[in-house]
Amino acid sequence: MPDKTRRLLERVATRHRVAVLGLWTYRFVLIFSAVYIVGLLCARVFVWLSNDMFNWMTVGVVPCAAVVAALFAHRGLKMADAARLVDLRMDAKDLYLTTATMHGGDGAGEAPGQYKPLVSAAAEQRAGDIRPQTVVPFDWSPNTTRALGALLLAVGLTFIPVFDVFGSEEERLQEERQIAELNKDKQIAVKKAAELKRQAVEAKHSQDVERVLDDLRKTFNQMKPQERELNQRKLAEQRKVVNDKWKDVQKERQERDKEANGGTLPRGFDTFVNKALTKKFKDELDQGSTDSLEQQFKQMRDTLDKIANAKTKEEEQQAKQELRQQMQQMKDFAQGQPGGQQMAQALDKALQQLQAGNEEGAKQAAMDALQQQMNLSEQQMKQMAQQARNLQSLKQAMEAIQNAQQANKGQQDGQGLDGKECANCKTMADYAKLYNELMQGQGQQGQGGSEQAQNDGQGSGGRGQGKGEVSEDDSAQSNFVTRKSKSHVQAGKILLKWKSDELASGGQSELDFQEAARKLQDGVPEALVQEQVPPGYHEVIKKYFDSLERNAKPAGGEKKSGDD
């Protein structure tokens, strides 16, 4: 094929491809814009689709998608088709189609012919005067204007508000907020559980309490008979350390309860609470044991597996009801225990997440969050048990120190305690028992003695060797601090309003005093806990208030008229 003819047909074919591609792009812009606008209206009015999909930025997807679709829709143009287009537009009487056919423009190869040179020469001569722009002119204005108008209409509609005729958008947003809240609770639970695990709450004692007990054991084991006074000073120092640590543990437990908004959680239904099981939990926890509690958590995890593997809706609901009762039992137990408010709070959240699991959209997120809350509450249960063991051991340590001080004073021949006697002692209870036995052998009454023996100054081994006289040296150095009690002697009622040097006769004032003494005595246990009185002083304080009741008995005598 001659050069000019070939170049003409190639340029015409190229322009034709561009024109057809633009036409298909225009068509797809209109189609996709219509689809986008319909979807936008469905999202804004009926919320059948997510409104997040439709904004002014996503409108840009429409022309991009139209171009891609046009590329797939356009098939291109053969040389023979370009020649036919030139003949049609330039009225060439099939000159260029004949030329393209003879030279294999249709893909059939060179065609023989007597007139081939003449036809090619005629086409070549005329090709110099034909412009491809004339054969395939570009007129973009109308289609471009309509395409831009459709896109601008789509952009403008993105700013209309959401009508939400059927309220489905609010449900969707509520579900999204619920899932976000569940995921947030899950992350918090994971973080708290990891922190508790790092603190080794499964150990018998916390690290700081264990250090205090280790130091006390060393003090007991290192006492020497010939250093009686030094032994006494060391025991006094250890007594202060143990007292302070006992207060710290109590304060830490109360602060955790306050942090968890203790006492504000709703109580469960009585039908969910097994009183005997709750008592068993409490009795074991008071001894620092968690066997029954751990068994309860195992049952809860098994029930959670039942929910995950339930084949029918009825099985799932039955398993959820069973888990709800188990968690409510644990929550009510924890809520009634000192230091258990955080565990109760975690279980309360787990109950909320179990309820959220009834929503189909949030079911998986709720179950994941529930699993993590159960793990957290189990770690908090172990922490609560560790605190109980801490307090119990510190209380035993205080008892052991008091017995050791008495035994160290009562040793004969001015000798003090011997640390070698503690070789078989392992726990604080062992030390307390050992020193109590030493006190009984000296004729003293230990912590477990009877009230009559303490009143008489006699222990199980007979009357003590002391003369009952106490000598004090005011110049001696001590840590004694003068303080005044802020507590009331009576229960808030003024019994007398005047002074008298005479002995009061029996009457209403005497009865009021007896009633006030009884009320004071009833409030002693609660006051000891609230005021964080160290356990070593509990017995002495209780005996003092017991003496008030004995002294409040009528002294006899007849009541005279007007004496009230």
Could you explain how this protein is built, in words?
It is a single chain. The protein is mainly alpha-helical and 564 residues long. The chain folds into three domains: 3-157, no CATH class; 170-394, no CATH class; 508-551. 64% of the residues lie in helices and 1% in strands. The chain is built from 19 helices and two strands. It has helices at residues 3-46, 61-73, 79-90, 95-102, 116-127, 132-135, 141-157, 168-198, 207-221, 228-259, 275-286, 291-308, 313-335, 341-356, 363-410, 428-441, 451-456, 508-530, 538-551, and strands at 458-459, 462-463. Strands 1-2 form a two-stranded antiparallel sheet. α8 runs parallel beside α15 (363-410) and α12 packs antiparallel against α15 (363-410). The radius of gyration is 48 Å and the shape is elongated. It starts with a helix and ends in a 13-residue tail after the last helix. Mean pLDDT is 77; it is low at 107-111, 448-473, 487-496 and 555-564.
Summed up, what is this model?
The chain has 19 helices and 2 strands. By secondary structure, the protein is mostly helical. The chain has a two-stranded antiparallel ribbon with strand order 1-2.
Side-by-side strand order of the widest sheet: 1-2
Name the quaternary structure: single chain
Q: Helix/strand-derived class? A: mainly alpha
Order of helices and strands: HHHHHHHHHHHHHHHHHEEHH
- Biggest β-sheet, characterized? 2 strands, antiparallel
Distance from N terminus to C terminus (CA atoms, Å) equals 143 Å
How many separate domains?
3
Q: List the total number of helices.
A: 19
Low-confidence stretches: 107-111, 448-473, 487-496, 555-564
Shape category = elongated
How much is the average pLDDT? 77
DSSP, total strands? 2
CA radius of gyration: 48 Å
Percent helix, as a range, is 55-70%
Q: Beta-sheet strand percentage?
A: under 5%
